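step=encode ok
step=design start
structure_in=
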């Protein structure tokens, strides 16, 4: 039987991520979210496949946050932007952000998000979502203006599709929310496998409260 996780149950979902976008997506679906970022080394080995790295890092984050929180489900995620098998992380400087956007400009890239869930039973469940994204071909001035907006600096690949960065995107194949940072179908399926209610059941319970 699926366990109720309505706000009245007092059993929030622990999100092992500092991403406000992931928290917002889960809250929109009715989850009660408690944010508890995991402080881990997110470096990857040169020979590690991006999908393997994304899933591994999500699992490590979930394990760290789950320690001492056995009564609450934990969800962790890790998103990677891959251009020609090169991982594009979060830029620190304007020049770095602009260089990433130049690579993506007018080209196709992959976005992979590993997701891991640990339920009250202590069992780890993990999977990933993958989306192909094609950028418009834009002039240098447009890329520089986007960098000047400040939006690229906390986002892998130097753009956020849910905001101004959506203007850079020509098309995509796969889950839009995966590019935002959390493939909702994957996350919901893993939570359901752990015995927790569907998101829309939670939302319905909230509206009836």
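sequence_out=
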């Amino acid at each position: 039987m699926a366990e109720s996780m309505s706000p009245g149950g007092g059993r929030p979902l622990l999100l092992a991520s500092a991403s406000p976008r992931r928290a917002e997506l889960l809250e929109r679906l009715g989850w009660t979210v408690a944010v508890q970022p995991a402080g881990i080394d997110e470096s990857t080995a040169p020979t590690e496949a991006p999908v393997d790295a994304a899933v591994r890092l999500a699992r490590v984050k979930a394990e760290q946050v789950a320690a001492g929180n056995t009564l609450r489900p934990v969800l962790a995620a890790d998103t990677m932007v891959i251009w020609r098998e090169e991982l594009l992380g979060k830029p620190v400087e304007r020049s770095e952000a602009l260089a990433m956007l130049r690579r993506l400009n007018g080209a196709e890239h992959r976005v992979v998000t590993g997701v891991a869930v640990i339920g009250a039973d202590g069992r780890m469940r993990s999977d990933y979502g993958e989306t192909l994204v094609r950028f418009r071909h834009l002039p240098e001035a447009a890329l520089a203006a986007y960098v000047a907006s400040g939006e690229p600096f906390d986002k892998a690949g130097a753009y956020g599709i849910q905001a101004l960065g959506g203007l850079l995107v020509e098309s995509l194949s796969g889950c839009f929310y995966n590019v935002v940072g959390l493939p909702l179908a994957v996350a919901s399926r893993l939570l359901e496998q752990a015995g927790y209610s569907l998101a829309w059941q939670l939302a319905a319970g909230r509206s009836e409260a």
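step=design ok
step=annotate ok -> The helical segments are 20-28, 50-66, 94-104, 140-148, 176-180, 184-193, 199-208.
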